[in-house]
Write a structure and sequence with these properties.
mainly alpha; about 10% strand; about 60% helix; two-stranded antiparallel sheet; about 80 residues
Length: about 80
């Protein structure tokens, strides 16, 4: 009886492994097709970067003060 149960369990595990591989193959194929279709139709094109020589206004105004008063580090933003 234990032999039959072990064989059936092994066959079930082998079946589950093959089913998982088949599902991964189907999902991978569908995902690759969706990405290829999006690239061909122009919906998934990378945005072009723009070069700028002007300094960023937010970055130029930012000043941080950091000091230690003996009880802990203070960061003033």
């Amino acid at each position: 009886m234990r032999n039959i149960l072990a064989v059936l369990t092994g066959l079930g595990l082998v079946f589950a492994a093959f089913a998982g591989l088949a599902l991964a193959l189907v999902i991978g194929t569908v995902a690759a097709g969706a990405i290829a279709l999006a690239r061909l139709t122009g919906r998934f094109q990378p945005a072009m970067a723009k070069a700028s020589t002007a300094a960023n206004a937010d970055r130029s105004r930012t000043e941080y003060r950091v000091w230690n008063d003996g009880r802990g580090t203070i960061i003033d933003m």
